[in-house]
Amino acid sequence: MHKSNIILTAGLILLNSCITQFIPKTTEDKEILVVEGLITDKPGMNSVILSKSMPLGIKSDAKPLSGCTVIVTDDLGNRVTFVESAAGKYIPINTYFHGEIGRSYSLHISTNIAYNNLNYESYPMEMKFVPAIDSIYYEKITMKERSDGSPSAEGCQIYLDTHDQTNQCRFYRWEYSETWEFHLPYTVPNSTCWISNNSNAINVKNTSGLQEDRVKMYPINLVSYTSDRLQVKYSILVNQFSLNEDEFLYWDKLQNVSEQVGGLYDMIPSEIPSNVYCLNDPGEKVLGYFSVSSNSSKRIFIKDRFAGILSPYTNDACIADTAFGGEAVPASAWVIISNFIPSYNVYTYTRGCADCTVRGTNIEPDFWANNK
Questions:
Q1: How many CB atoms lie within 10 A of CB 277?
Q2: Closest Cα to residue 131, out of 201, 215, 200?
Q3: What is the per-residue pLDDT across 53-71, written as a single tens digit (0 to 9) for each?
Q4: What is the CA 313 to chain-centroid distance, rounded?
Q5: pLDDT digits (tens, 9 = 90+) for 138-147
Q6: What distance in Å separates the CA atoms of residue 223 and residue 230, rounded to the nearest whole number?
Q7: Is omega for the bond preceding 342 within 30 degrees of 0, making it cis?
């Protein structure tokens, strides 16, 4: 019996020592063009982002694809050149450019010599009408019960309502940008700042199976108590886009992929059809989509009291030590509390506890002043 246990233990050790990453052999291209294009009826919201996906098994962000020629044409023969404003991001050379509802637009891409001088096009995409957002509102929700009698931790569930009385816009997609004000709990020069963050979640809705083209209480974002977003004042700007059925299916499949754990036999992104194809080699895969949509937007501000909001600036996280009397503060530290009678300075080694611009900006957004 003792001998059997020794053999079993040795076998388990051997198995654990031989575990290596398994990367299956596939026919996938090592680097695939990724297209993130958006043309709207609003100036300043139009861009094409090009990158190259990484080979299977490599954990890294996609690499921006620079030096490309990017042109957008419409069904009347007009063409607009897009220029590179940042690595891999292309914007219209005419900053006033915007699409028109009912017109169709196509994307044309020519890559550089480093990417084989390939040419790509999209299928023509019609810009469809999108209705206005009816309302954006929120409710407090309990996210964590506390057994010690202290208030429960509360989050903020944000909802959206919209409808199209003409029943034309049956497929919707939403993006949002959130901004919040936060304060450092110490008397320092930069104690008030703002942070803005763009959504990376996929929000789509299909109303084609409903009698009325109406979306009610769509949960656009859940703001948790685990960040300081709700501590002072929070704002969310929601952009609403219209989709055709093919593009809705693209986003819907992409949403399903992003929500999966990612097993070996799960759907992979290249199985989601793009509307962009390679002219030189029609069999070459392309990831992403060239979206054409009208846009409506709405912003709300939330200034309310939410229980249990956590702050990253607790004394335990920030305070390092105290220098009394004429004792010198270490050169590598920042003073966050000064007192004259009696004389002492409380200091930190974490710059973010003494300067809010480490996380955000101390320049108030223009739209913030509209909601004092």
A1: 16
A2: 215
A3: 755 444 446 689 999 999 9
A4: 25
A5: 999 998 876 6
A6: 8
A7: yes
Contact 80, 40 (CB under 8 A): no
Flag whether pLDDT at 240 surpasses 70. yes
Residue 209, pLDDT score: 84
pTM more than 0.70: yes
Give dist(CA 362, CA 234) in Å, integer: 16
Q: What is the pLDDT of residues 268-279, one digit of tens each?
A: 555 688 999 999
At 38, the pLDDT band (50, 70, 90 cuts) reads: very high
Three-state SS annotation for the chain: CHHHHHHHHHHHHHHHHCCCCCCCCCCCCCCCEEEEEEECCCCCCCEEEEEECCCCCCCCCCEECCCCEEEEEECCCCEEEEEEEECCEEEECCCCCCCCCCCEEEEEEECCHHHCCCEEEECCEECCCCCCEEEEEEEEEEEECCCCCCCCEEEEEEEEEEECCCCCCCEEEEEEEEEEEEECCCCCCECEEEEEEECCCCEEEECCCCCCCEEEEEEEEEECCCCCCCCCEEEEEEEEEECCHHHHHHHHHHHHHHHCCCCCCCCCHHHCCCCEEECCCCCCCEEEEEEECCEEEEEEEECCCCCCCCCCCCHHHHCCEEEECCCCCCCCCEEEEEECCCCEEEEECCHHHCEHHHCCECCCCHHHHHHC
